[in-house]
User: Fold this.
Amino acid sequence: MTTADTSAAAVLAERRDGVLVITLNRPEARNSVNAAVAAGVAAALDELDSDDGLQVGIITGAGGFFCAGMDLKAFVRGESPRTDRGFAGICQRPPEKPLIAAVEGFALAGGLEVALSCDLIVAARGAKLGIPETKRGLAAAAGGLLRLPKRIPYHVAMLMALTGEPITAERAYEVGLVVELSEPGSALDAALRIGGLIAANGPLAVRVSKRILQSAIDWEESEAWNRQAELVGPVFTSADAREGAVAFAEKRAPIWQGR
Assistant:
């Protein structure tokens, strides 16, 4: 079996009305990340970024859970769980377009780091989210330690990192890590609903909004307005901006061109 065949089986990609649903498909291994998963996720994200017919991505897992992190058995065999996009084909270079994590069951270790690479996290009630690496003498080096303190209160992030204990989806919702709770088995449906709302908006506006929100946390106040102006200027003069205004005046749905 070729690498392409393996990655195709380990990761499924399905298009749904402008939304690309990416499914980690190794339920027998709790959707843990091996070379095939990393390659499959990276390929799906390349498709998401390059295809004008796709506006939003969703990552979920098969079998009633999200991801248990790195496949240690595959790692011992010499497989790399990384691509040029980083761990799991995502952690160092997420897509330019919005990405939603739909979490069922658990997202642990590298699994939570995959979810943290997304722009929004939806989780089923009772799901567990955590970075237990310290319990194995390791550290959450695929983005967990870098991203968590930017998403949740500092001391909550510190507690999760130092104890290695997971938190529930309900607690994650309380601290703002999870944006919506669903009933078990319905996380993907909730993510698809949110994805549909995003996909209905102007693609240029959505992409620039994501980029500014990601970058602004590191901008100094003195430079923030100029940097924002550089990014939003082309959006305000785009054909889509005119179409949005005309469609509003004509009381119809806009027809976006992405330019």
About this structure: The radius of gyration is 19 Å.
